[in-house]
Amino acid sequence: MKQAHIFDNRRTGVLLHITSLPSRNLGADAYRFVDFLHQSGVTVWQMLPLGPTHDDGSPYQCLSAHAGNNKLLCEAYIKAQPWVHTEDLAGKKIYTIVANAYKQFYENANEADWAAFDSFCQRQAFWLEDYILYREIRNLNHALPWFDWPVEFRDRDPATLKDLAEQRAESLNIRRFEQFLFFQQWNNLKTYANQKNVKLFGDMPIFVAHDSADVWAAPELFTLDETGQATKVTGVPPDYFSATGQRWGNPLYEWQAHIDEDFDWWVKRLSTQLELFDLIRIDHFRGFESCWEIPASCETAMEGEWGKAPGEALFNKLVANFGELPLVAEDLGIITEEVTALREQFAMPGMKILQFAFGGDADNPYL
Predict the structure, then answer these.
(1) Which of 6, 44, 67, 317 is deepest in the core (most CB within 10 A)?
(2) Residues near 249 by beta carbon (within 8 Å), at least 6 away in sequence
Protein backbone atom coordinates (compact mmCIF):
# COMPACT_ATOMS: atom_id res chain seq x y z
CA MET A 1 0.00 0.00 0.00
CA LYS A 2 1.31 3.44 -0.94
CA GLN A 3 2.50 5.64 1.89
CA ALA A 4 0.69 8.95 2.44
CA HIS A 5 2.29 11.76 0.44
CA ILE A 6 3.01 13.78 3.58
CA PHE A 7 5.82 11.32 4.30
CA ASP A 8 7.51 11.86 0.90
CA ASN A 9 9.79 14.59 2.25
CA ARG A 10 12.23 14.32 5.13
CA ARG A 11 11.13 16.66 7.90
CA THR A 12 12.15 17.87 11.32
CA GLY A 13 9.68 18.61 14.07
CA VAL A 14 9.16 19.72 17.65
CA LEU A 15 6.89 18.15 20.28
CA LEU A 16 5.23 20.89 22.34
CA HIS A 17 1.74 20.64 23.77
CA ILE A 18 -0.48 23.74 23.78
CA THR A 19 -0.34 23.89 27.58
CA SER A 20 3.45 24.39 27.41
CA LEU A 21 3.03 27.73 25.63
CA PRO A 22 3.33 30.77 27.94
CA SER A 23 -0.38 31.57 27.58
CA ARG A 24 -1.43 27.87 27.62
CA ASN A 25 -4.06 28.56 24.95
CA LEU A 26 -4.73 29.01 21.23
CA GLY A 27 -3.91 32.71 21.28
CA ALA A 28 -1.00 34.84 20.10
CA ASP A 29 1.70 32.61 21.60
CA ALA A 30 0.57 29.70 19.41
CA TYR A 31 0.94 31.86 16.29
CA ARG A 32 4.29 33.14 17.54
CA PHE A 33 5.45 29.55 17.95
CA VAL A 34 4.40 28.77 14.37
CA ASP A 35 6.46 31.77 13.22
CA PHE A 36 9.44 30.46 15.19
CA LEU A 37 9.12 27.01 13.60
CA HIS A 38 8.82 28.52 10.13
CA GLN A 39 11.87 30.74 10.62
CA SER A 40 13.84 27.73 11.90
CA GLY A 41 12.97 25.50 8.96
CA VAL A 42 10.92 23.16 11.17
CA THR A 43 7.89 21.79 9.32
CA VAL A 44 6.15 19.62 11.94
CA TRP A 45 4.54 20.72 15.21
CA GLN A 46 3.65 17.65 17.27
CA MET A 47 1.36 17.83 20.28
CA LEU A 48 -0.68 15.70 22.67
CA PRO A 49 -4.43 14.96 22.39
CA LEU A 50 -6.64 18.08 22.52
CA GLY A 51 -9.69 16.69 24.30
CA PRO A 52 -11.29 17.89 27.54
CA THR A 53 -9.56 16.12 30.41
CA HIS A 54 -10.61 14.69 33.75
CA ASP A 55 -9.45 16.41 36.92
CA ASP A 56 -6.02 14.76 36.66
CA GLY A 57 -5.36 16.78 33.50
CA SER A 58 -4.14 13.81 31.44
CA PRO A 59 -4.90 14.27 27.72
CA TYR A 60 -4.81 10.48 27.38
CA GLN A 61 -7.97 10.09 29.51
CA CYS A 62 -10.39 12.53 27.91
CA LEU A 63 -14.10 13.11 28.39
CA SER A 64 -14.53 12.88 24.61
CA ALA A 65 -12.60 11.50 21.66
CA HIS A 66 -13.96 14.31 19.47
CA ALA A 67 -14.43 17.47 21.54
CA GLY A 68 -11.84 20.18 22.12
CA ASN A 69 -10.64 21.23 25.56
CA ASN A 70 -12.41 24.50 26.42
CA LYS A 71 -9.49 25.48 28.68
CA LEU A 72 -7.41 26.00 25.54
CA LEU A 73 -9.72 28.77 24.27
CA CYS A 74 -8.21 32.23 23.91
CA GLU A 75 -10.33 34.90 25.62
CA ALA A 76 -8.67 37.71 23.65
CA TYR A 77 -9.75 36.07 20.39
CA ILE A 78 -13.35 35.91 21.62
CA LYS A 79 -13.29 39.58 22.62
CA ALA A 80 -12.11 40.50 19.12
CA GLN A 81 -15.17 39.02 17.40
CA PRO A 82 -17.51 41.47 15.64
CA TRP A 83 -20.54 40.27 17.61
CA VAL A 84 -18.89 41.30 20.91
CA HIS A 85 -20.16 44.78 21.70
CA THR A 86 -18.76 44.99 25.21
CA GLU A 87 -15.67 43.43 26.76
CA ASP A 88 -17.49 42.24 29.87
CA LEU A 89 -16.50 38.61 29.28
CA ALA A 90 -14.29 38.09 32.30
CA GLY A 91 -14.99 35.16 34.58
CA LYS A 92 -13.06 32.91 36.88
CA LYS A 93 -13.93 29.85 34.82
CA ILE A 94 -13.88 29.41 31.08
CA TYR A 95 -17.52 28.26 31.10
CA THR A 96 -18.54 31.69 32.44
CA ILE A 97 -16.56 33.41 29.72
CA VAL A 98 -18.18 31.26 27.04
CA ALA A 99 -21.65 31.78 28.55
CA ASN A 100 -21.20 35.55 28.45
CA ALA A 101 -19.88 35.32 24.91
CA TYR A 102 -22.86 33.22 23.83
CA LYS A 103 -25.25 35.86 25.20
CA GLN A 104 -23.58 38.50 23.06
CA PHE A 105 -23.51 36.19 20.06
CA TYR A 106 -27.23 35.49 20.50
CA GLU A 107 -28.02 39.21 20.66
CA ASN A 108 -25.61 40.59 18.08
CA ALA A 109 -24.54 37.96 15.56
CA ASN A 110 -25.50 38.48 11.91
CA GLU A 111 -26.93 35.91 9.51
CA ALA A 112 -23.50 34.74 8.36
CA ASP A 113 -22.40 34.15 11.96
CA TRP A 114 -25.52 32.16 12.70
CA ALA A 115 -25.15 30.18 9.48
CA ALA A 116 -21.60 29.24 10.49
CA PHE A 117 -22.78 28.14 13.95
CA ASP A 118 -25.69 26.14 12.57
CA SER A 119 -23.49 24.50 9.96
CA PHE A 120 -20.97 23.46 12.61
CA CYS A 121 -23.69 21.95 14.82
CA GLN A 122 -25.14 19.98 11.92
CA ARG A 123 -21.78 18.68 10.65
CA GLN A 124 -20.62 17.63 14.11
CA ALA A 125 -23.97 16.40 15.42
CA PHE A 126 -22.80 12.76 15.27
CA TRP A 127 -20.72 13.35 18.41
CA LEU A 128 -21.68 16.83 19.60
CA GLU A 129 -25.21 16.04 20.81
CA ASP A 130 -24.11 13.12 22.97
CA TYR A 131 -21.19 15.14 24.30
CA ILE A 132 -23.20 18.16 25.45
CA LEU A 133 -25.78 15.92 27.14
CA TYR A 134 -23.02 13.96 28.84
CA ARG A 135 -21.30 17.11 30.12
CA GLU A 136 -24.58 18.62 31.32
CA ILE A 137 -25.70 15.49 33.17
CA ARG A 138 -22.22 14.97 34.60
CA ASN A 139 -22.25 18.53 35.93
CA LEU A 140 -25.72 18.07 37.48
CA ASN A 141 -24.41 14.93 39.19
CA HIS A 142 -21.38 16.65 40.73
CA ALA A 143 -18.86 15.17 38.24
CA LEU A 144 -19.73 11.55 39.04
CA PRO A 145 -18.81 9.14 36.24
CA TRP A 146 -21.72 8.19 34.00
CA PHE A 147 -21.89 4.61 35.32
CA ASP A 148 -22.70 6.02 38.79
CA TRP A 149 -25.53 8.29 37.60
CA PRO A 150 -29.18 7.56 38.37
CA VAL A 151 -30.19 4.63 36.21
CA GLU A 152 -32.43 6.66 33.87
CA PHE A 153 -29.47 8.83 32.91
CA ARG A 154 -26.93 6.02 32.98
CA ASP A 155 -29.01 3.91 30.60
CA ARG A 156 -30.04 6.87 28.39
CA ASP A 157 -33.80 6.64 28.91
CA PRO A 158 -35.21 8.52 25.86
CA ALA A 159 -37.97 10.33 27.76
CA THR A 160 -35.56 11.45 30.48
CA LEU A 161 -33.04 12.79 27.96
CA LYS A 162 -35.80 14.56 26.02
CA ASP A 163 -37.02 16.29 29.17
CA LEU A 164 -33.49 17.32 30.09
CA ALA A 165 -32.87 18.74 26.62
CA GLU A 166 -35.99 20.89 26.91
CA GLN A 167 -35.32 22.04 30.48
CA ARG A 168 -31.63 22.80 29.90
CA ALA A 169 -31.87 24.10 26.33
CA GLU A 170 -29.86 27.29 26.88
CA SER A 171 -27.11 25.56 28.83
CA LEU A 172 -26.81 22.91 26.14
CA ASN A 173 -26.57 25.59 23.46
CA ILE A 174 -23.75 27.24 25.40
CA ARG A 175 -21.92 23.92 25.33
CA ARG A 176 -22.48 23.69 21.56
CA PHE A 177 -21.18 27.24 21.22
CA GLU A 178 -18.09 26.38 23.28
CA GLN A 179 -17.15 23.67 20.78
CA PHE A 180 -17.94 25.99 17.88
CA LEU A 181 -15.45 28.49 19.31
CA PHE A 182 -12.83 25.80 19.85
CA PHE A 183 -13.01 24.44 16.31
CA GLN A 184 -13.09 27.97 14.91
CA GLN A 185 -9.97 28.97 16.84
CA TRP A 186 -8.23 25.70 15.99
CA ASN A 187 -9.03 25.88 12.27
CA ASN A 188 -7.68 29.43 12.14
CA LEU A 189 -4.43 28.27 13.77
CA LYS A 190 -4.14 25.26 11.47
CA THR A 191 -4.70 27.41 8.38
CA TYR A 192 -2.00 29.83 9.56
CA ALA A 193 0.44 26.99 10.28
CA ASN A 194 -0.14 25.34 6.91
CA GLN A 195 0.42 28.67 5.15
CA LYS A 196 3.80 28.78 6.93
CA ASN A 197 4.55 25.21 5.72
CA VAL A 198 4.09 23.81 9.22
CA LYS A 199 2.15 20.55 9.53
CA LEU A 200 0.21 19.84 12.72
CA PHE A 201 0.94 16.38 14.14
CA GLY A 202 -1.76 15.07 16.50
CA ASP A 203 -1.99 12.15 18.87
CA MET A 204 -4.85 9.62 19.00
CA PRO A 205 -4.85 7.21 21.95
CA ILE A 206 -6.03 3.78 20.84
CA PHE A 207 -8.36 3.50 23.86
CA VAL A 208 -10.87 5.98 25.29
CA ALA A 209 -11.65 6.74 28.92
CA HIS A 210 -14.32 4.66 30.66
CA ASP A 211 -15.92 7.85 31.94
CA SER A 212 -16.39 9.54 28.58
CA ALA A 213 -19.21 10.61 26.31
CA ASP A 214 -18.08 8.00 23.79
CA VAL A 215 -18.52 5.01 26.11
CA TRP A 216 -21.76 6.38 27.61
CA ALA A 217 -23.23 6.86 24.13
CA ALA A 218 -22.31 3.38 22.85
CA PRO A 219 -21.67 0.99 25.76
CA GLU A 220 -22.31 -2.01 23.52
CA LEU A 221 -18.99 -1.31 21.78
CA PHE A 222 -16.98 -1.84 24.97
CA THR A 223 -16.32 -4.59 27.52
CA LEU A 224 -18.97 -3.55 30.04
CA ASP A 225 -21.66 -5.29 32.05
CA GLU A 226 -25.32 -4.22 32.12
CA THR A 227 -24.59 -1.57 34.80
CA GLY A 228 -21.80 0.05 32.81
CA GLN A 229 -18.97 -1.40 34.87
CA ALA A 230 -15.94 -2.71 32.97
CA THR A 231 -15.48 -6.47 32.84
CA LYS A 232 -12.03 -6.33 31.19
CA VAL A 233 -9.61 -3.42 31.08
CA THR A 234 -6.53 -2.36 29.16
CA GLY A 235 -2.83 -2.39 29.93
CA VAL A 236 0.41 -4.14 29.03
CA PRO A 237 2.07 -7.21 30.57
CA PRO A 238 5.09 -7.20 32.87
CA ASP A 239 8.31 -6.13 31.14
CA TYR A 240 11.66 -4.50 31.90
CA PHE A 241 9.87 -1.28 32.90
CA SER A 242 7.49 -2.86 35.43
CA ALA A 243 7.44 -6.25 37.15
CA THR A 244 3.64 -6.10 37.48
CA GLY A 245 2.94 -4.59 34.07
CA GLN A 246 0.74 -1.54 33.50
CA ARG A 247 -2.98 -1.52 34.30
CA TRP A 248 -4.43 1.46 32.44
CA GLY A 249 -8.06 0.73 33.30
CA ASN A 250 -9.80 1.72 30.06
CA PRO A 251 -12.48 -0.69 28.89
CA LEU A 252 -11.47 -2.78 25.89
CA TYR A 253 -13.34 -2.84 22.60
CA GLU A 254 -15.98 -5.44 21.87
CA TRP A 255 -14.42 -5.96 18.46
CA GLN A 256 -17.23 -8.11 17.09
CA ALA A 257 -19.67 -5.26 17.71
CA HIS A 258 -17.37 -2.91 15.75
CA ILE A 259 -17.15 -5.44 12.92
CA ASP A 260 -20.95 -5.76 12.89
CA GLU A 261 -21.35 -2.00 12.42
CA ASP A 262 -18.64 -1.96 9.72
CA PHE A 263 -16.29 0.08 11.95
CA ASP A 264 -18.56 3.13 11.75
CA TRP A 265 -17.39 4.33 15.21
CA TRP A 266 -13.78 4.34 14.01
CA VAL A 267 -14.58 6.10 10.74
CA LYS A 268 -16.28 8.89 12.68
CA ARG A 269 -13.45 9.09 15.20
CA LEU A 270 -10.77 9.42 12.54
CA SER A 271 -12.81 11.94 10.54
CA THR A 272 -12.67 14.39 13.43
CA GLN A 273 -8.94 13.90 13.92
CA LEU A 274 -8.21 14.38 10.22
CA GLU A 275 -10.10 17.67 10.38
CA LEU A 276 -7.82 18.82 13.21
CA PHE A 277 -4.44 17.48 12.08
CA ASP A 278 -2.26 16.91 9.03
CA LEU A 279 -0.82 13.69 10.43
CA ILE A 280 -1.66 11.61 13.47
CA ARG A 281 0.29 9.40 15.86
CA ILE A 282 -1.62 6.31 17.03
CA ASP A 283 -0.72 5.64 20.64
CA HIS A 284 -0.26 1.90 21.37
CA PHE A 285 -0.57 0.79 17.74
CA ARG A 286 0.22 -2.82 18.67
CA GLY A 287 -3.24 -3.03 20.24
CA PHE A 288 -4.74 -3.19 16.74
CA GLU A 289 -3.08 -6.60 16.28
CA SER A 290 -3.69 -7.92 19.80
CA CYS A 291 -4.58 -6.33 23.15
CA TRP A 292 -3.55 -7.27 26.68
CA GLU A 293 -6.89 -8.04 28.32
CA ILE A 294 -6.95 -7.78 32.12
CA PRO A 295 -9.93 -8.94 34.22
CA ALA A 296 -11.33 -5.79 35.84
CA SER A 297 -11.16 -7.48 39.25
CA CYS A 298 -7.34 -7.70 39.07
CA GLU A 299 -5.35 -4.88 40.65
CA THR A 300 -2.29 -5.37 38.43
CA ALA A 301 -1.69 -6.37 34.81
CA MET A 302 -0.04 -9.67 35.70
CA GLU A 303 -3.10 -11.86 35.12
CA GLY A 304 -4.02 -10.64 31.67
CA GLU A 305 -3.91 -12.45 28.34
CA TRP A 306 -3.53 -11.45 24.71
CA GLY A 307 -6.73 -11.06 22.72
CA LYS A 308 -6.73 -10.69 18.94
CA ALA A 309 -7.89 -7.45 17.32
CA PRO A 310 -9.13 -7.01 13.71
CA GLY A 311 -6.53 -4.44 12.71
CA GLU A 312 -6.34 -5.43 9.05
CA ALA A 313 -10.09 -5.25 8.54
CA LEU A 314 -10.27 -1.94 10.39
CA PHE A 315 -7.52 -0.25 8.37
CA ASN A 316 -8.94 -1.59 5.11
CA LYS A 317 -12.17 0.17 6.02
CA LEU A 318 -10.33 3.41 6.88
CA VAL A 319 -8.39 3.32 3.62
CA ALA A 320 -11.64 2.78 1.71
CA ASN A 321 -13.07 5.89 3.37
CA PHE A 322 -10.09 8.23 3.53
CA GLY A 323 -7.57 6.97 0.98
CA GLU A 324 -3.95 7.36 2.05
CA LEU A 325 -3.69 7.39 5.84
CA PRO A 326 -1.31 10.03 7.30
CA LEU A 327 -0.81 7.86 10.40
CA VAL A 328 2.33 7.17 12.44
CA ALA A 329 2.36 3.99 14.50
CA GLU A 330 3.68 4.22 18.06
CA ASP A 331 5.27 0.78 17.97
CA LEU A 332 7.32 0.77 21.16
CA GLY A 333 7.31 -2.08 23.67
CA ILE A 334 6.88 -5.79 22.93
CA ILE A 335 6.43 -5.81 19.16
CA THR A 336 5.84 -9.07 17.32
CA GLU A 337 6.34 -9.91 13.67
CA GLU A 338 2.56 -9.71 13.23
CA VAL A 339 2.46 -6.13 14.54
CA THR A 340 5.29 -5.08 12.24
CA ALA A 341 3.59 -6.75 9.28
CA LEU A 342 0.34 -4.87 10.01
CA ARG A 343 2.18 -1.55 10.21
CA GLU A 344 4.08 -2.19 6.98
CA GLN A 345 0.98 -3.44 5.15
CA PHE A 346 -0.59 -0.01 5.59
CA ALA A 347 2.65 1.94 4.99
CA MET A 348 2.77 3.57 8.42
CA PRO A 349 6.09 4.85 9.75
CA GLY A 350 7.00 3.50 13.18
CA MET A 351 8.95 5.19 15.97
CA LYS A 352 12.53 4.90 17.12
CA ILE A 353 13.92 6.33 20.37
CA LEU A 354 17.39 7.83 19.90
CA GLN A 355 18.59 6.97 23.41
CA PHE A 356 17.75 3.28 22.92
CA ALA A 357 20.41 3.03 20.19
CA PHE A 358 23.25 3.53 22.70
CA GLY A 359 23.59 -0.07 23.78
CA GLY A 360 23.49 -3.64 22.62
CA ASP A 361 25.06 -5.02 19.45
CA ALA A 362 24.67 -4.56 15.72
CA ASP A 363 21.19 -6.14 15.84
CA ASN A 364 19.81 -3.29 17.97
CA PRO A 365 16.81 -2.09 15.91
CA TYR A 366 17.18 1.46 17.22
CA LEU A 367 20.47 1.93 15.38
Answers:
(1) 67
(2) 210, 230, 233, 234, 235
- Return the closest-CA partner of residue 135 out of 98, 105, 106, 100: 98
CA–CA separation, 8 vs 217, rounded Å? 39
Per-residue pLDDT tens for 248-275? 999 999 999 999 999 999 999 999 999 9
| Secondary structure of the chain in HEC code, one letter for each residue | CCCCHHHCCCCCEEECCHHHCCCCCCCHHHHHHHHHHHHHCCCEEECCCCCCECCCCCCCCECCCCCCCHHHCCHHHHHCCCCCCCCCCCCCCHHHHHHHHHHHHHHHCCHHHHHHHHHHHHHCHHHHHHHHHHHHHHHHCCCCCHHHCCHHHHCCCHHHHHHHHHHCHHHHHHHHHHHHHHHHHHHHHHHHHHHCCCEEEEEEECCCCCCCHHHHHCHHHECECCCCCECEEEEECCCCCCCCCEEEEEECECHHHHHHCCCHHHHHHHHHHHHHCCEEEEECHHHHCEEEEEECCCCCCCCCEEEECCHHHHHHHHHHHHCCCCEEECCCCCCCHHHHHHHHHCCCCCCCCHHHHCCCCCCCCCC
The answer to whether 196 touches 38, Cβ cutoff 8 Å, is yes
CA distance 217 to 150: 15
CB 13 within 8 A of CB 43: yes
Give CA separation, 70 vs 191, 242, 322, in Å: 20, 35, 28
Residue type for 28, please?
A: A
Contact 245, 237 (CB under 8 A): yes
Q: Which pLDDT does position 323 carry in this prediction?
A: 94
Find, among 52, 51, 61, 57, the residue nearest to 209 by Cα: 61
- % of the chain surpassing 70 pLDDT: 99
Q: What is the dihedral of CA 86, 92, 97, 100, to 10 degrees?
A: -60
Residue pLDDT, tens place only, 333-348: 778 999 999 999 999 9
Rounded CA gap, 116 and 184, in Å? 10
Distance CA 345, CA 5 (A): 16
- State the sign of the Cα–Cα–Cα–Cα dihedral 253, 255, 261, 264: positive
